[in-house]
Amino acid sequence: MTKTNRLRVRTGMIAATATLLLFGAVAPAVASNPTSDAHQTAASTPLPEGSDEHYAGSQIMKHEGRSGSPDPRVASVTQTHGMDVSGWQGTVDWNKAARDGAHFSYVKATEGTGFRNKDFAHQYNGSYNAGLIRGAYHFALPDRSNGATQAKFFVSNGGGWSADGKTLPPALDIEYNPYGNTCYGLSQSQMVTWIRDFSNEVHRLTSRYPTIYTSTSWWQTCTGNNGSFGATNPLWVARYAGSVGTLPNGWGFQTIWQYSDSGIFPGDQNWFNGAPDRLKALANG
After folding, report:
1. Which residues cross the membrane (predicted)?
2. Helices and strands counted in the chain (H then E)
3. CATH number assigned to the domain comprising residue 101
4. What is the pTM (predicted TM-score) of this model?
């Protein structure tokens, strides 16, 4: 390096140092990826609020797994077959599902207060047009906003109810947190309050208490096995085994049992606990 070039480099370094002394060092920008860490805190980059991958039982399967499924031909009591779907299934052949024996379906409508199932309209209307009794469900994110706020968002985006004999009560899907802490960072009493606020707001807006979808294990862990909802809210329980097993406290029976995440119908496989006329009675309220 020539003497002249060495002088230029030295002069440039002195100028850069002076600039740092006057204005302070500036850290380089770092591109953020909101989905790269499922355990981010509220103070960091916000997590997305919803996904087609979050559907009824998606997190229960990850945490609890499966240990078989019942044989529909040997039900001990009258059961009525049905299904539930979300944006994960996309376009559904509802006429085929009806021919295969589906009598009802729940369809994911919303998640949190920022996610709508893009396939909701044609899934919800398609099931109705094929003769199924259908209802809408909401995937809860209790750490994002309060229960009443999410209930309003849900009812405004497909979670309503009408006494037409073809619409099931709205449903709340409350299960393991897909983004981190099992109970969303809420205490058991806070979780009970959140669910009650959601339930009461849905009832205020629709005149129906929502069906509660959950697993016994999650309910015991995150609500302390609270028994105060059985008198008002139908139970939709998830358990992928040969029997329904122990139910959450407060319910003497399940209204719907989600017994498998795959089978003859698209989406998850369900049994309504009764004959088709009782399913219609549930729809009528």
Report:
1. none
2. 8, 9
3. 3.20.20.80
4. 0.81
4/258 Cα distance (integer angstroms): 80
Query: 127 — alpha (psi -120 to 50), left (phi > 0) or beta?
Result: alpha
Residue 75 domain-assigned (yes or no) = yes
Going by C-alpha positions, the residue among 219, 203, 269 that lies closest to residue 241 is: 269
Active site residue 173: yes
- Beta-sheet pairing, 256-260 with 235-238: parallel
pLDDT digits (tens, 9 = 90+) for 137-167: 999 999 999 999 999 999 999 999 999 999 9
**Which residues constitute the domain of residue 263?**
62-141+150-176+192-284
- Whole-number Å distance between alpha carbons of 114 and 236: 24
Contact predicate 192/231, CB 8 Å: no
Q: Which of 173, 201, 261, 268 is catalytic?
A: 173
Domain count, the chain: 1
- Provide the 3-class DSSP secondary structure of residue 78: coil
